Amino acid sequence: MPKKKRKKWDHKMAPTFVVPRKEPWPAIYHGKDLAMVLRNLRRHACNYDADRFDGLEELGFVWRMPRGNHQIVTYWANATTKWLVNGMPLTSLVAQLKTYHEESHNLDIPAALTVEMQDGHQSTFHVALAYAPRLLRAHFYELSVADVDVLHGLGLFPELPQWAIVKALFSRYKERLHSDAVPVNFEVPATWENVYRGIRLGELAWYLVLVAHDPLQQRPWRFRRPGDGP
């Protein structure tokens, strides 16, 4: 099936596309959302034989979700009591958290609560919203400035500043301390500029190492754990 898609568009990143009910498209997929078919291929990849992997690789199948889209637990409204893990734009989760807060005046989200969301395709999913904060924190620096402002306004992740502040702060650290090694217990002192004051830079550096955000591949600093040498 993906082979037909590649022949038509020369890539595997399916937009919103419903398989036509005609040849040469396989009859089993007529009328189906192609993006959903591809998500299912990713989700069940652990069950594939090696030759199936080879065939998908040969077609240039995209295994990773595009930046800004990540997996979250959902209840598929079109199935019978079926919990799945599906791709969802991070910005949609931010918007839904904001809506929940406006209606409930808190973010104490019950684990069993699901909220209806459009995933950008034809199918409607019910997202288990309680999982959203931890997912957003793990991918915080993939969010837009506007989405970060929304999350900060909700009281979430105050320990994670805007990315522009993070970059400037590491430069300031190196300028003041003449070192690019950040101890895990380093907190910006009160004598520094207000915009940086109180930020736990050591913990922030540790977080950035863990999430391995792409812009950090050439980062101008090193994280130093207790006991590390100079």
Please explain how this structure is put together.
The chain folds into 3 domains: 2-58, no CATH class; 69-153, no CATH class; 163-224, no CATH class. The termini are far apart. Mean pLDDT is 74; it is low at 1-14, 119-123 and 213-230. With 230 residues, it is of the alpha+beta class. A 4-stranded antiparallel beta sheet has the order 2-1-4-3. The radius of gyration is 22 Å and the shape is elongated. The protein contains 8 helices and 6 strands, in the order αααββαββαααβαβ. It comes from Saprolegnia diclina (strain VS20). This is Helicase-associated domain-containing protein.
Indicate the topology.
Layout: H1 2-9, H2 34-43, H3 50-58, E1 69-76, E2 83-89, H4 90-104, E3 114-118, E4 124-128, H5 132-138, H6 145-153, H7 163-177, E5 181-183, H8 201-211, E6 222-224
Parallel strand pairs: 5-6
Antiparallel strand pairs: 1-2, 1-4, 3-4
Helix pairs in contact: 4-5
Concise synopsis of the structure shown:
This protein has three domains: 2-58, no CATH class; 69-153, no CATH class; 163-224, no CATH class. The protein is built from eight helices and six strands, in the order αααββαββαααβαβ.
